[in-house]
Amino acid sequence: MRTSILVSLLLVSVWVGASCGPTLEERQRKANTQLKLGNAELNRGNFEEALKAFEKAKDIYPDNPDIYHGLGLIYFYQRQYENAVEAYDRAINLTA
C-alpha cells in the first residue's frame, strides 16, 4: 500500500512538472528569435513590425535589456521621447 502511494505521488509530481510551461532557456530562445526579427525590421525602417516583434519578445521574456533598447530606438525614431526614455531606463535597470 505504501509503495503504491509513493508511486502515485511520483507520477503526479512528474505530470505537474511536465505541465509547468516552457523552461527559462526556451523562453529566452523564443524571445531572442523575436528580438532578431525586431532588429531586422528596425534596420529596414519597418517600425510597426519591429514594434510587434519587440512586444512579443517582451511578453515572452521581459528581463532582456536588449528588448527595451530596441523599443527605445523605435520610440525615439517616432519622436515618442517619453516612451523612449522609459524604455531606455528599463534597459539600464536590467543591466545594473
Secondary structure: elements and pairs:
Layout: H1 2-18, H2 24-44, H3 47-60, H4 65-77, H5 81-95
Helix pairs in contact: 2-3, 2-4, 3-4, 4-5
Tell me what the structure shows.
- Helix content is 83%, strand content 0%.
- The protein is built from 5 helices and no strands.
- It has helices at residues 2-18, 24-44, 47-60, 65-77, 81-95.
- The longest helix is centred in the middle third of the chain and has 21 residues, at 24-44.
> First CA to last CA: what distance?
54 Å
Order of helices and strands: HHHHH
Mean pLDDT: 88
The fraction of residues in strands falls at under 5%
What's the number of extended β-strand segments?
A: 0
Tell me which oligomeric state these chains represent.
Answer: single chain
Q: Report the radius of gyration as a whole number of Å.
A: 20 Å
Structural class: mainly alpha
Q: Any idea what the shape is?
A: elongated
Report the total helices.
5
The low-pLDDT segments are none
Helix content: over 70%
Main β-sheet description: none
Short summary of the structure?
By secondary structure, the protein is mainly alpha-helical.
Feature tags:
single chain, 96 residues, mainly alpha, 5 helices
